[in-house]
Amino acid sequence: xxxxxxxxxxxxxxxxxxxxxxxxxxxxxxxxxxxxxxxxxxxxxxxxxxxxxxxxxxxxxxxxxxxxxxxxxxxxxxxxxxxxxxxxx
Length: 89
Fold this sequence. Notes:
By secondary structure, the chain is of the alpha/beta class. It contains two helices and three strands.
């Protein structure tokens, strides 16, 4: 979220925006995937990012059982989020 991404929409995974970088908001259309039981980055950080950015609550997708988001459900959610942001849905 700290990169100049032009018109590309973002899909963020458990963003560590409070720990690294300078961005305090993300642009419209951003989707955030995060596990409520993430042991590395608090889920509340993503809730705060959605609020600060003026995104709809639906921009934050709760998925997964840990920080890695490497099980089938989070991977499917990532694919769906990427497809929808590319207009492939």
